[in-house]
Amino acid sequence: MSLFGAASGFGTGGASMFGSAAADNHNPMKDIEVTSSPDDSIGCLSFSPPALPGNFLIAGSWANDVRCWEVQDSGQTIPKAQQMHTGPVLDVCWSDDGSKVFTASCDKTAKMWDLNSNQAIQIAQEGVAYREVAVLCVEASPPSLNACHLSDTTVVEFPHDAPVKTIHWIKAPNYSCVMTGSWDKTLKFWDTRSSNPMMVLQLPERCYCADMIYPMAVVATAERGLIVYQLENQPSEFRRIESPLKHQHRCVAIFKDKQNKPTGFALGSIEGRVAIHYINPPNPAKDNFTFKCHRSNGTNTSAPQDIYAVNGIAFHPVHGTLATVGSDGRFSFWDKDARTKLKTSEQLDQPISACCFNHNGNIFAYASSYDWSKHRRKQTR
């Protein structure tokens, strides 16, 4: 465990502060930038649940670290603590009570970070409508010094035989567990008190992305696989779905109906397209649809287009509108029911690699950092 601004070198270097003059377009909308941002590309973001007073933001990066900030009502961000993996961090999530953070990494481990003690415990290892004025910009750039810490911490580490791509906390009436999806073609469910999984489900291919809103989970795999799971009583496969997209899956997010129950999902691909898919629609041919996004000329097909990957999808927790972010360096807001675009941001000088809303939808966070879409041609700052 290390603290923001420790003598190890974390927290030193140039600062990129809100409102500072800039000659480039790394933050053209002058959104609030998080202090002490990671030193490498950011792969995942997650806000704290409603049970935790205030707003805390977690980010995992290719610098092998997970960082936590407190986001104040003024927009100021206060670095709180940091944990390390030995490989890039691909996914993060919170427990329902906000006391723990779960992390998934390329080092083939998943960890449970107890925020009360600030310790991380391995739980999986090999062989064993938005508010415009409250937008956060998380940049992979040299961090500024702003030290603040939690009390000393426990990290529980959970076994996978390949990188762990996704991690989700499941809180059911009769059980609680962590769900991990891996490139070893398994979906595992863990009791956090044990290093042995409660259940292992085989996937047809490597897990590329997943989402979970009890009692439903969706996993998208390599070779355009799509599997829906039901989580009541115990997890089990509910249905396999033929992918509505023709190219590799990149991100997936579940949406709810007016009764606040999960009813379908949005699926994004590397081909600048999103599919809206209902699980049990009255009229599948009419209700399920796809739309183009993150393209250089919008929907104009008469001119050549640059087509970019959809890196992330997030649904507004109150209004049900959705945000998409892409390799084109833009985020857009959409109304899936009216099938219209609400707004597109100005273009940043780097891809937008991840996004999320806070629990009441007042804050939208996005990460501006290289997403490997052009191989090793990376921008550094």
Automatic annotation (TrEMBL):
It is found in: Cytoplasm, Cytoskeleton, Spindle pole. InterPro entries: WD40/YVTN_repeat-like_dom_sf (IPR015943), WD40_PAC1 (IPR020472), WD40_repeat_CS (IPR019775), WD40_repeat_dom_sf (IPR036322), WD40_rpt (IPR001680). It comes from the Eukaryota. One of its GO terms (cellular component) is spindle pole. Keywords: Repeat, WD repeat. WD repeats lie at residues 82-123, 178-200, 310-344. Its main location: cytoplasm. PANTHER family: MRNA EXPORT FACTOR AND BUB3 (PTHR10971). Interacts with NUMA1 (via N-terminal end of the coiled-coil domain); this interaction promotes spindle formation in mitosis. Interacts with NUP98. Interacts with MYCBP2. Interacts with USP11. Belongs to the WD repeat rae1 family. This is Rae1 protein homolog.
